[in-house]
Amino acid sequence: MLDTNVLVSALLFDKGRLSWLRPCWQTGRITPVLAQPTAMELLRVLAYPKFRLEPIDRDRLLEDLLPWSESWSAPIPSSTQRVRDPHDQVFLDLALAAATPVLVSGDADLLALKESVVPLQIVNPADFQIWLGASL
Question: What is the pTM of this model?
């Protein structure tokens, strides 16, 4: 599972440090998981004025993600693990509910839990790239 900041970086910056993720989901090596609250967060962030994206631009970016994503429509139970920033809780809860093996984030509040949430691995994008290479 990829948090919003990771998704946005992969979608917006074709030559950025996370651009390698887009072909990963478009070839089926990974499957991003989205639920209503995480999808709404993604839409909200893509609409930030600093990105200067017109609605058609946002639609094109979503076309590069949504066909390869899994949509989680079941309830997302609240885990016993608490994230320091309550806004990040949904990513942890969704990753656990969907039984994803890994949650990729650059967020310090989520990464702070990487040693305490089993069986989920919480990793930054660089470590995920290494993990993904090792899992082939």
Answer: 0.93
What Rg, from alpha-carbon coordinates, does the chain have?
Answer: 14
Three-state SS across 71-84? EECCCCCCCCCCCC
Residue 29 reports pLDDT greater than 90:
yes
> Residues 107-120: pLDDT tens digits?
999 999 999 988 89
Residue 122 has pLDDT above 60, yes or no: yes
> Can you read off the two tokens belonging to residue 80?
């016993």
For 115-129, the DSSP string reads TTSSS-EEE-HHHHH
Residue ranges of alpha helices (H) inside 4-112 are 4-12, 21-26, 36-46, 55-63, 89-97, 108-111
Instruction: Give the pairing of strands 121-123 and 102-104.
Output: parallel
Percent of the chain with pLDDT over 90: 92
> Going from the N-terminus, what domains does the chain have, and what CATH number goes with each?
4-134 (3.40.50)
